[in-house]
Specification:
Pfam families: Bmp (PF02608)
Strand order of the largest sheet: 2-1-3-4-5-11
CATH class of the largest domain: Alpha Beta
Subcellular location: Cell membrane
Protein name: Nucleoside-binding protein
Number of domains: 2
Radius of gyration: 20 Å
Number of strands: 12
Keywords: Cell membrane, Lipoprotein, Membrane, Signal
Membrane topology: Lipid-anchor
Helix content: 40-55%
Number of helices: 10
């Protein structure tokens, strides 16, 4: 019910941002248009999808583009992508690694259409790829978690057994152990990005095992984990977007995966240059593709803040390397 309300609110507020172009022609050849297929959980996830949507809204307001979007909760990504291709957009975006297979299939069938894959890497000539160094931002969240943990046990909840989720996990673990080498990380895989109740139950289990900081990388499933942490009176960390407002008594900080900035910046290049020259992007701390949201609820000491700043600089310089395998 909560997710339905979130989705309804986002759709009501964002309706003006979507292109009303027919499937046969663009409304104006001088206006750039973009189509996006959102990942599995769709709008209202308070995280991944909503961040990308904000980027397109900003592009609409500041750059004058139009956009349309599709959701495919039934998993029929190809049909949704074909609908967007039929609208003759200047760029069609597939959001999330789970869409890659369908996106590549559709891209092969439409070689003149320009596509963008976010959270995956493709070798096809008409697909631009964007990946993020989630491990770098997660390393900093792990540091904060270890600094504020009293039990020396932290919890990590992943949404899938996938490379992108492993980057969250490995970064979080190594950041925590950078502060406290003896700290314990409890790990669970939800295998689901859209079940808040499942996320809540996993978090509750980890809390029973002694975790006093929960870090989920699991979309809307993670929202349930954060809310369970708040109910239990312990700390948590958000992902992708600043999730403080989901649980204002629990979320200390969030690992910002700046999908909104990436979408806006590429759209800006498309508008100004008429095309996007690069074939792939990998965005980390150095490129301002990931980062930390403000620390709230608790305060970092001057020494703790200094240590996080030093770690950030060392990651950017390459002095600190984060293992993701």
């Amino acid at each position: 019910m909560k997710k339905f309300i979130l989705i309804l609110l986002v759709m009501m507020l964002s309706a003006a941002g979507c292109s009303s172009a027919s499937s046969e022609e663009k409304p104006d050849e001088n206006i750039q248009t973009i189509g996006i297929l959102l990942s599995d959980t769709g709008l209202g996830d308070g995280s991944f999808n909503d961040s990308a949507f904000r980027g397109l809204e900003r592009a609409r307001d500041e750059l004058g583009i139009l956009f349309d979007y599709r959701e495919a909760p039934d998993g029929n990504f190809e049909e949704a992508l074909e609908e967007l291709v039929a609208q003759d957009h200047d760029l069609v975006i597939g959001l999330g690694f789970s869409i890659q297979e369908a996106l590549e299939k559709v891209a092969k069938e439409h070689p003149k259409q320009q596509f963008l894959l976010i959270d995956g890497s493709s070798e096809l000539d008409n697909i631009i790829s964007i990946t993020f160094k989630e491990q770098e931002g997660s390393f900093l969240v792990g540091m904060v978690a270890a600094m504020k943990s009293k039990s020396n046990k932290l919890g990590f909840i992943g949404g899938a057994d996938a490379p992108v989720i492993h980057r969250f996990e490995k970064g979080f673990e190594q950041g925590a152990k950078y502060v406290n080498p003896s700290i314990t990380i409890l790990k669970d895989n939800a295998n689901n990005f859209g079940d808040a109740a499942l996320g809540s139950s996993i978090a509750e289990k980890q809390i029973e095992q002694g975790a006093d900081f929960i870090y989920p990388a699991a979309g809307f499933t993670g929202v349930g984990s954060i809310q369970a942490a708040q109910k239990a009176g312990i700390y948590s960390g958000g992902v992708d977007s600043d999730q403080y407002f989901i649980a204002e008594k629990s979320v200390v900080t969030s690992m910002l995966k700046k999908i909104d900035n990436a979408v806006f910046n590429l759209t800006q290049q498309l508008v100004s240059e008429g095309s996007i020259s690069e074939s792939s992007f990998e965005l980390g701390l150095k490129e301002d593709g990931v980062g930390l949201a403000p620390v709230r609820i608790t305060e970092l000491t001057d020494e703790e803040s200094k240590k996080i700043k030093e770690a950030t600089d060392k990651i950017i310089s390459g002095e600190v390397s984060i293992e993701t395998n």
